[in-house]
From TrEMBL:
Gene3D superfamilies given in the database record: 3.30.450.40, Winged helix-like DNA-binding domain superfamily/Winged helix DNA-binding domain
HTH iclR-type domain residues: 5-68
Database matches in SMART domains: HTH_ICLR
Name this polypeptide is given: IclR family transcriptional regulator
Taxonomic source organism: Amycolatopsis nalaikhensis
Membrane-spanning ranges: none
InterPro entries with a match to the protein in the record: GAF-like_dom_sf, HTH_MetabolicPath_Reg, Tscrpt_reg_IclR_C, Tscrpt_reg_IclR_N, WH-like_DNA-bd_sf, WH_DNA-bd_sf
Domain IclR-ED: 69-252
Source species, domain of life: Bacteria
Length: 260
């Protein structure tokens, strides 16, 4: 990798690490750790990015947060890439119908990114997912359902190099992921039975682009006793119906996330 490309890569990793700590922000040390970069390097990058308002310091703290210029750039990019407008009423409808927290996530490379959260009426909620949260494919129900709908060769290539168990525990060993994929393909929707946080369950359905590629996911999350064996199929069927309708809507708009 040449020097300009390497610099862009370090900037990208640093910004992503900052984004992972929104809205409270994080110290330079924490951002360097998450970005996998030396602290002095990250300090220089963040200081430079602060000069063009891509990041800023939280008043009275040493924490860095994303800056206002990123928001303005995002608004401009939204004209081309935004899929949240048609997804918003779907997510709200799911939250109202079930009382659970509902989400819309997008696939970005080998991760899912939560774009929308809408809480239902039930007062006890799961906080694993939030707007901006990123998880690898195969982790949380959105990542499970998208991975399950990829071709077998793509799945095996991914599992051969993705060590999910190292960060998320033995319940994410490759053999367990394959078992969840088989179950997801059988039912059409994925179920996360408290694999990331004990007692926090989720179920998700994939949303497809015009080419039939899984690009997004609709998710419902809540506490374990709300996801009974009797209720889970009802939630799954509801998600599948809404996901199918949203797939058709997004396909009609020609929406795609630009990265497969």
């Amino acid at each position: 990798m040449n020097a300009p490309q390497d610099l862009v890569g370090r900037i990208y990793r640093s910004l992503r690490a900052v984004a992972g700590h929104e809205p409270a922000g994080a110290t330079t040390t924490a951002i360097a750790r998450d970005a996998g970069l030396p602290r002095p390097t990250v300090h220089r990058l963040l200081t430079s990015l602060q000069g063009v308002a891509l990041v800023e310091r939280v008043a009275g703290t040493d924490n860095w947060v994303l800056g206002p210029e990123l928001y303005l750039l995002g608004v401009a990019a939204a004209r081309r890439y935004d899929v949240t407008e048609p997804a918003m009423p779907v997510v709200r409808r799911l939250a109202l119908a079930t009382g659970e927290s509902a989400f819309f996530s997008a696939r970005r490379g080998e991760e899912t990114v939560c774009l929308i959260r809408e809480d239902g009426a039930f007062p006890i909620r799961s906080h694993v997912l939030y707007e901006g949260a990123r998880f690898p494919l195969g982790v949380v129900s959105a990542g499970m359902v998208i991975l399950a709908h990829l071709p077998d060769a793509r799945v095996e290539e991914y599992l051969a190099r993705a060590d999910l168990a190292a960060e998320y525990g033995p319940q994410h060993e490759a053999a367990e992921i394959r078992r969840h994929i088989a179950q997801t393909r059988r039912y059409g929707y994925a179920v996360n039975p408290g694999l990331v946080v004990e007692g926090s369950w989720g179920t998700a359905a994939a949303v497809f682009d015009v080419a039939g590629t899984p690009r997004w996911a609709l998710t419902l999350t809540g506490v374990e006793h709300r996801f009974t064996a009797e209720r889970l199929p009802q939630l799954g069927e509801l998600l599948l119906r809404e996901a199918h309708a949203l797939s058709e809507t997004l396909a009609g708009r020609g929406a795609a996330d630009g990265r497969g």
